[in-house]
Specification:
- With about 180 residues, the chain is mainly alpha-helical.
- It is built from five helices and two strands; from the N terminus they run ββααααα.
- A two-stranded antiparallel sheet has the order 1-2.
- Strand 1 and strand 2 form a beta hairpin.
- Helix 4 runs antiparallel to helix 5.
- The termini are far apart.
- It binds zinc ion (ZN).
Length: about 180
């Protein structure tokens, strides 16, 4: 029985025709992309593989889109998603190798994935450090500004006010420099 519900059938001379044979001659089913046979005649494995590859390509595409869509702090989140996907892909790639020989054959993609992964991890670490610094500094500046406003409202002596403001500015500059040195 070569008939499969929902699977396309082709014309007699179609290059897409399955090479398998049935009791009544050559199979009329369409071959699986990348295989000479339909799923009934041994193309099933290839079909599964195609779907998996397509799914992984789709996942990576989604991740790329997320990175493009987020230009601010959420690109850190996108990077982390990317790391997760690459980890999963790497895991799947290694898990699929059942013999040493298969592992050797896959060493190209594996080292490629590992390389991309380490790049992404470095990038994400740098980004989270950068974001952490930017946020602390912004928060500190906002706080200093509020303090200066309150002092300005309370202190009437302009000389004293100038001195307070200049001391706060000094402190902020010093903090920023110290922060850059340690970061
Ligand atoms: Zn067939």
């Amino acid at each position: 029985m070569s008939n499969m519900e929902g699977w396309p059938r082709v014309d007699e001379n179609s290059p897409e025709r399955c090479g398998g044979s049935t009791g009544v001659g050559q199979c009329w089913n369409q071959r699986v992309e990348g295989s000479s046979y339909c799923p009934v005649h041994g193309g099933g494995h290839k079909l599964k593989q195609n779907k998996r590859e397509k799914y992984e390509a789709w996942q990576l595409g989604q991740w790329n889109k997320q990175v493009r869509d987020h230009a601010d702090s959420s690109s850190l989140h996108a990077l982390q998603i990317g790391i997760g996907i690459l980890c999963k892909t790497l895991e799947l790639t290694v898990a699929r190798c059942q013999t040493d020989q298969e592992l050797v054959l896959k060493s190209g993609p594996i080292s490629d994935l590992t390389c991309k992964l380490s790049k992404l991890i470095t990038e994400s670490q740098q980004m989270s450090m950068r974001l952490g610094q930017v946020m602390n500094r912004t928060e500190a500046m906002a706080m200093a500004q509020s303090i200066v406003t309150i002092i300005g409202e309370e202190v009437q002596d302009s000389v004293v006010l100038e001195r307070i403001i200049s001391r706060i500015e000094e402190l902020m500059t010093h903090e920023a420099t110290a922060g850059n040195e340690t970061g």
